[in-house]
Amino acid sequence: MMNLKPMIIGACSVLALAGMARAETITIATVNNGDMIRMQKLTDDFTAKNPGIELEWVTMEENVLRQKVTTDIATKSGQYDVMTIGTYEVPIWAKQDWLVPLNFDKSYDVDDLLPAIRSGLTVDSNLYAAPFYGESSMVMYRTDLMKAAGLEMPDKPTWDFIAKAAKAMTDKEKGVYGVCLRGKAGWGENMAFLTAASNSFGARWFDESWHPQFDSPEWKKTLSFYVDLMNEAGPPGASNNGFNENLALFQTGKCGMWIDATVAASFVTNPKESQVADKVGFALAPDAGFEKRANWLWAWSLAIPAGTQKREAAEKFIAWATSKDYLKLVAEKEGWANVPPGTRTSLYENPAYQDAAPFAAMTLASINSADPKHPTVKPVPYVGVQFVAIPEFQGIGTAVGQQFSAALAGQVSVDDALQRAQALTTREMMKGGYIN
Amino acid sequence: MATKNTRASARMMMAPAVIMLFIWMIVPLAMTLYFSFLRYNLLNPAVTDWAGSFNYTFFLTDPAFNAALINTLLLVGGVLAVTVIGGTLLALLMDQPFWGRGIVRLLVISPFFVMPTVSALVWKNMLMHPVYGLFTWIAHVFGLEGIDWLSDIPLTSITLIVSWQWLPFATLIFLTALQSLDREQMEAAEMDGAGPVSRFIYIVLPHLARAITVVILIETIFLLSVFAEILVTTNGGPGTESTNITYLIYSQALLLFDVGGASAGGIIAVILANIVAVFLIRLIGKNLEA
Questions:
Q1: In chain B, how many H helices and how many E strands?
Q2: What is the ipTM of this complex?
């Protein structure tokens, strides 16, 4: 009898070890955005439904994530089993055979994914990533300041109206600035906004034979308009402001208007986070009369790198995180206004969501009006609204973004910035072998 | 007295460590050199052919290269000037007996223990922010327009942040040197009628010469590769106003994912750093020989 206890303990340990050996751990690389952090808190639901799978999270800031996952996948080091990537990476990586095509069962309802988003993640009719949340861009504005300025925001504003309203709403003495726009250099920061804006002014990055177009009058108009508007009605230090900085400015009542990602709508209307939650209105991104609006299209999506040994478990996790049931789970715990937006048609047909999210209709309209296959007024050889889906773009985009950021800061003139952008883009396109 | 045998066995015992160290240094350097002659972009792994001097020509003719080179030298020079002059003054001050000297010494030294990224974040968001920052608030109190530090004077701002971090190091070394100064010599000079300025120039400064040389050499090594502060505050911008060579190489490697180009940049940086080192040792290193 005396020897029984250690034997039982030993047997239990062996069983526990065997259990641990069977449990599969998948490593997920993700971005530190609010919706992803919320997902991490809700994963008990997944592990309860999939007892054999354990999750390990690596959460990073957007730029760091991009660097880590790109180097990981390109060098085939296999550190991650699930990666959070965007609509820019998916087509490029899928063509390199770096991603595994996703096959979900019927209950997942692939047809329910919003067509614009789904097509951005599909290559050769295979879905290579599942959207966790999708976004376009739109105008968010302060209804009280607009009223005080004696103006009324149309549903489909023009750039002229935005400029007029911004100047009317600006009160620098009180620290209120008519418009907050991205100025921080980066292909995913100021260039996301400026490329989308340039589309609406009739500009394009490259002509049909891949020659850079920064010497065109349309780009000059885009950049001059942006710099003039920000000088007159933008906050100080705008050349350092990206999404997060502008979000903080808007939430603390410093901005009259903010043209940025639709996903920000739930943050600026949440009374816990925003001092102006009850005074925010929404409108489509502006145009300049060329049938193209300045709105982009993006989806943070989950994909499986080709190097993983745990494909099945990774697929199960992605199916859970991007399913209709996940939306319901968030709604139960946090309310409908906080579910990840912009991925499923059924969400926008749900009356509960429509009631809880005043921005739902405008978000959907914005996403649907973006066309990655025909992003510009004139024809282009590339796909992508606020980016050009070629591997070289993230480097070129950031370098051009630096020049435009310098123009905004007043370090160089608009003409010089455009000239430098033209020169450096031509250089990199020659290096990449696109032009001679 | 070492015999031939003991010397041989000592060499045998040291060999593994020496070989390890050698491999540790030579392998990455050789790989960088090899990659610098390849057309090797992580995003386009299909093409990895021999590139000859292509990567070097491309890096050296980059419009950002000249700006980065000048910024690197300005940053090193600026921080050295602030830390050597400021450090000397602070060390002189802290060498005087006054109430609470221990606490003041601790406070002055503390910035050295703050991580560069953390201090850069604090400077950017709490001090230099053009809307919420402390400096803007102070300017407003006096009825002035706040300075938009990181957009208007980016390199000066970064020099300030980095100087703040390195000032304690210089102060600490100078204070230690000052404490070894012979008090009797100072008193004798004072009795002979030498004023405080003369005493500083003819006694204190020569005494500090070696410490100043050490500070300049050590700081230069680290300052040539300042990176975190730039990444956190300005990302090398606006434009290339605050891009240094290290940041330029980073952007080649992790924004363009151009391993070949970045490797060529790395080799060029090593050569440039060596030129600076030789120049420095010739210019001021003679202080160390005495």
A1: 15, 0
A2: 0.76
